[in-house]
Amino acid sequence: MSTSRGLRPTQKMHEGYPLSCEVCVGDGPSCTGKLQTCAPDEDSCVVAVTETNRKASLAVTSYKGCAKSSECESGLFGITMNPENYMGSRRRCCQKDGCNQDPLPAFVRNQTENGLRCPSCIAAFTETCTASEEALCVGEETRCVAVSGLVQPAGVKFAVRGCGMETACHTKPGTLVPSGARLFTIKKTSCL
After folding, report:
1. What superkingdom does the record give (predicted)?
2. Quick check: 164 and 140 in contact, CB under 8 A?
3. From CA 122, how far away is CA 184, in angstroms rounded?
4. By the 8 A CB rule, do 22 and 35 touch?
5. Residue 71 predicted with pLDDT over 60
6. pLDDT at 155 over 70
7. How far apart are CA 166 and CA 112, in angstroms?
8. Comparison of pLDDT for 113 and 105, the residue scoring more
9. From CA 35, how far away is CA 18, in angstroms rounded?
10. Angle at the Cα of 45 from the Cα atoms of 42 and 172, rounded to 5 degrees
């Protein structure tokens, strides 16, 4: 018996084979879909739940799907532009067939002001925005951040500035954040 044959069973499950992940988008903290085969360059499954407040209209959205590990990051993402506009997301990335089937705990926003104030703005159809207001930071939002990307399905550019969690400063380009019928793809983040 050769050593290479002895090693075969210990290889990663998806090495050389496409990964299968549950795929769905839904209103509420959890969604259910079918297992689907990922594209060859998608080597991770992702599950995300997002709480979005747009113009004082609160929505919770869940998302499950395939992703590239270079664009998938487990953890929290939070940014506040003003009291009526904020987004908080919890994500988990994993690399085994069907590993994203379990729901995540809902994102819970700490609304206690922490004393930090950041320049804020929201703009569509552009990659930058000029701050015209000031956001009052809350909870774990300890940095002033600028975020830009695309809103799917239309592929419209967006830019926001405001208060963010430390993790927002290091969000990988390509990270997906679901919000209602839209899916935000983060292209660039920076801490100011």
Report:
1. Eukaryota
2. no
3. 14
4. yes
5. yes
6. yes
7. 17
8. 113
9. 12
10. 70
Prior bond of 105 cis (ω within 30°):
no
pLDDT value at 95 more than 60: yes
How many Cα atoms are found within 13 Å in the side-chain-facing hemisphere of 147?
34
170 three-state secondary structure: coil
Are 23 and 64 in contact by the 8 Å Cβ rule? The answer is: yes
Q: Which residue has the tokens 């069973």?
A: 9
Contact 141, 164 (CB under 8 A): yes
Residue 27, beta-bridge partner list:
61
The structure tokens listed for 161 are 């500035």
Longest dimension (CA), the chain: 71
Min mean pLDDT across 7-16, 100-109, 128-137, 152-161 is at 7-16
Distance between CA atoms of 65 and 83, rounded to whole angstroms? 31
In terms of DSSP H, where are the helices of 22-114? Answer: none
Q: Does domain 13-191 have CATH number 2.10.60.10?
A: yes
pLDDT of residue 10: 31
- Return d(Cα 66, Cα 109) in angstroms, integer: 27
